[in-house]
Amino acid sequence: MRTNDGLIAATLGALAVVAGAAAITRKSAFGSAVGRRHQPTVIAARRLNRASGLIAASTLLDSGIEHYRGAFHNRAMIAPLVVSALTLAVSAHGTRDARPVAHRLRDSVYAGAALTGLIGTGFHLYNIGKRPGRFSWKNYSWQNLFYASPILAPSAVALAGLLGYYSERLRESRSTGAPRVFGLPAGRALAALTAAGLVATAGEAGLLHFRGAYHDPFMYVPVTVPPIAAALLAETAASRPRKPRRLARWWLRLTTLIGFVGAGFHIFGVHREMGGWRNWRQNVLNGPPIPAPSSFSGLALAGLAALGLIEEHPHA
Amino acid sequence: MTVESNQLHDALHVPRGKDGRAPDPLRVGGWMPMREYREDEAVDFVIVGTGAGGGTLACKLAEAGFSVIGMDAGAWWRPLEEFASDETHQDKLFWTDERICDGDNPLKLGSNNSGKSVGGSTVHFAMVSLRFRPEWFKCRTLLGYGADWPLDWREMWRYYGEVEQALKIAGPVTYPWGPKRPRYPYRAHEINAAGWVLAQACEAMGIAWTETPLATISAPRGRAHPCVYRGFCVTGCATNAKQSALVTWIPRAVTAGAEIRDLAMVGRIEVNDAGLATGVHYQREGQWRFQRARNVVVAGYAIETPRLLLNSATDRYPDGLANSSGLVGRNLMAQTNQGVYGVFDDEIRWYKGPPSLTLTEHWNYTDTGKDFFGGYAFMAQGPLPQAWVSTQAGNRGLWGEALLREMQQYNHQAGFKIVGETLPQERNRVTLADEKDQYGLPVARVTYSLCDNDKALVKHSIDFMSRGLDAIGARDIWAEEDDTCHLNGTARMGDDPATSVVNADCRSWDIRNLWICDGSVFPTVGGVNPSLTIQAIACRTGDRIRQLAALGEL
Amino acid sequence: MPDRYPGYDVLSKRNTASWNDASRQVIDARLAIVDSPEFFDERKWRTLRAICDRIVPQPAGRAVVPIAAMVDRKLADDHRDGYRDARLPPQREAWRRGLAALEAAAQARAGVAFHRLMTVAQDALLRDMQCGRLDGPEWDDMPADLFFRERVAHDILAAYYSHPVSWNEIGFGGPASPRGYVRMYFNRRDPWEAAEAKAGHEAAARDANENM
Ligand SMILES: Cc1cc2nc3c(=O)[nH]c(=O)nc-3n(C[C@H](O)[C@H](O)[C@H](O)COP(=O)(O)OP(=O)(O)OC[C@H]3O[C@@H](n4cnc5c(N)ncnc54)[C@H](O)[C@@H]3O)c2cc1C
Ligand code: SF4
Hints:
The structure holds three protein chains of three kinds. Chain A is mainly alpha-helical. Chain A has twelve helices and two strands, in the order H-H-H-H-H-H-H-E-E-H-H-H-H-H. Chain A has helices at about 5-25, 30, 40-70, 80-95, 105-130, 140-145, 155-170, 185-210, 220-240, 245-270, 280-285, 295-310, and strands spanning about 180, 185. In chain A, strands 1-2 form a two-stranded antiparallel ribbon. The radius of gyration of chain A is 19 Å and the shape is globular. Chain B is of the alpha/beta class. Chain B contains 13 helices and 22 strands. In chain B, the strands form six sheets. In chain B, strands 3, 4, 9, 10, 11, 12 and 22 form a seven-stranded mixed beta sheet that branches. A six-stranded antiparallel beta sheet of chain B has the order 8-15-16-17-14-20, sandwiched between helices. The longest helix of chain B is centred in the C-terminal third of the chain and has 20 residues, at about 450-470. The longest helix of chain C has 20 residues, at about 90-110. In chain C, helix 3 crosses helix 6 (about 145-160), helix 4 packs across helix 6 (about 145-160) and helix 5 crosses helix 6 (about 145-160). Chain C has one domain (about 20-170). Chains B and C meet through strand 5, helix 10 and helix 11 of B and helix 1, helix 3, strand 1, helix 5 and helix 6 of C. Strand 5 of chain B pairs parallel with strand 1 (about 85) of chain C. Bound molecules: flavin-adenine dinucleotide (FAD) and iron/sulfur cluster (SF4).
């Protein structure tokens, strides 16, 4: 791929992400809905659309940057960009849609994203398998963990798809009694799924910050705050709450915040590399990944959606 | 060259460690305050040379509260603004004063192994930071060759750990050879294609390999930027990623109260009637001056250290200082540095990244299947164009069309070079020539010949590496038969004044307040690059001096 | 010789993040070297130039690198390497003596100056020098083969491969600070590196190189 194409693609991608994120977070989207908009399942579903969209925005930028590094040497490397962009778009649509029915297109895009994430993981494993050292747990497996195709990255695409797919199921779930999805109590199942996502993402942040030698004490934040959020969510999923989950709610809000603050830190980190932003073509690739932390925000939003459901419907 | 910009050469002409301040290499145009000592008041220590040995020791002694002056003949550089990405220009970092080489295998010095700047050779070294194999400290007893060191490997293991932390060495999580060592402080760097070639060859030959522990940071550290993989390491790191003495020990030393005098060439150590050193005569800004000191440490590297000791001869010490054993200047060991190269269909582009990102120490730790004493490591390579053409022309005698065509394969070449152990031989030595240098001091004559054991090691290595390249499908494989690298020996340490120059504490047997703390003190060299060991010894010496002072034994 | 990196010019990166001020100053100065002698006299200069043309035969149709002038400046400044084989005199004297001895050999063999010989004859003389087959009083104990290796080949080739034109020829990235490199694996190229012409895809490489 020619440099200019890469530049144009990157710029367009960034624009799309900003536009999508703006659409998702627009408060008015919630206010403008009519009729049964206060139905808790729909509210939770829309929150999930938002969460999914945020994660998709993060994966769109991240895979864009990483696959640009890889010079798109395999055509399939464009797939996560397309899929993430679509996920972002349908999520934007979903956050503005107050109807209690699943949407065909959204549904299939989300399902497609989940599938793409899985296939991507397969691709990345295959790639590592081609390198000397492969998966053997000798020390050069670290080399592959740090520098080869990242194993965990595609699962973020899958996670965005999964959350979105879940939101569609939630939307169409029966409104009488406690909502259930796939036969499970919707709130709890979602809390558990989100907790797992947070743990995995914190794991990835842990690996990458270990790679960066924790040279800044703030680098411990993403390996402490989100796991606690995950624990609170897991506890919520496992118990029958009587009172509102005050602590969990605040902790999830904190987690949302650190996702965005983290991106700010990473922007500063790029500036701190040799040549700073003037040398962006190197430093955006080799410096800290700017879009990565916002996955935490997306997951925390999903966690908040789960809390909302559970508080509304103690049996959900 | 005259036409090249002069302000990039400023540091070579005007001393910077003056007037109570020192350059801060980590900030463009930056300065830091520096303590100054008077010449007529004796300081606790004058250290001649501020490289791996001297720079480290200056830091340790200053931090222990001693008054310390470090002197270096070279300039005090600011890498961020004064280092160009250019092989020719950067020879301002090297010791290019004349030295005369003879013997069966006359050495190549200069850019190949000798630095002249604050920070010494570490300013342009390749950053490979390896520990000795423990048995080498007792290689006469345990392995049957060379000479035993007066040091215990377990103690050295601790000091290696201290240096690795101080330099934030980037290395593998676990190291395949030798006793357990802690994880390296920073993660290993990404391996480049040239490094993967070595990995593949080792796997094909069924031996272990690893990421090379390197003294260049893989993540930010304070104000130092991480490595940007520009590949100009051996001409100086403009990024400051390289953890040279210039950006590590020296600023620490200055902060702790040491004074560093750049462009200060020491010509002679003064010794009084009682047989004690009283200070050093040095030239700075065109004038000979004298600095009084209670102790003098020589840390000028394996050629300048004996040269200074020999140049300081007096009536009482006609053969030079600390030389009652007659061993000053003898047992010079230049590690062998042969290589093999081949051409690949793949693009390698070996100019990217630090040159030796992977290595194997297999033949350091394996004692069977060898017809020689000692060991060798071999490493991935990444020569820049001038270095590469000099290898091609110097070894294969290529020129004209044939050479140009060969040079066009540059981006498809890969290869390995050894760091090979050579045995100590008394005939390999540094003496004084009749010729004088620009300071009016006799220059060094360096006499070097490989022995049969050295040659057998080289042959073994070339054979093994060639098979490795062949096994992974390299074409046009050829061997670079003639190269050497690091210098050591010439003032060996030991337990016996008759067979060594200094004791385990780097204190000379003959003159109680004269110390030698650099690569010269190695009794043997092993098959690894020496700077980590030099720095570990300097850390130990610093601790020992503090203990001796506390006991009143200085 | 095929053009392996068509359209690649290291200098096109001069104003990018690959070059810092120090590199710009150094390379600018090198490109400004005037092709005339400061150290050698006219006769020796002609001999040196003829030698340079044989050690590095530069392709026609390309700006000529003033290799002889670069060698001349090294000697004018007496910029040494930091070591000298004991059998050689200091570099200035070695060059003076070696060039005079080569002239003498040319005269003895063909009765004309070295630079007037056909290239095959020049090559033959140089090869004899390389193999140590030249001797005579002009050499005064200086071994011809050593002079060839340590001075002729060493100084001339170091000069040529310090010039950006030679970097273009071999696809070297040239100056690289503050920006270094990102893509380290086999067959991976940063957009600011030379693209190599693959058989049948020369135009693509030229395109990439010219749009760097
Ligand atoms: C290109 C290259 C690559 C290398 N790569 C590696 C590597 O990867 N790993 C490794 O371990 N080692 C490497 N080395 C070797 C390593 O740099 C040296 O072994 C080490 O720096 C030697 O330490 P030292 O203290 O003995 O001397 P130096 O570090 O050389 O310091 C000596 C200093 O003393 C000064 N000096 C000498 N005489 C006087 C005097 N009379 N008055 C004032 N000052 C004086 C000199 O100017 C110099 O600055 C490399 C060396 C070179 C040249
Ligand atoms: S490759 Fe790294 S260590 Fe070497 S010069 Fe570049 S930045 Fe410095």
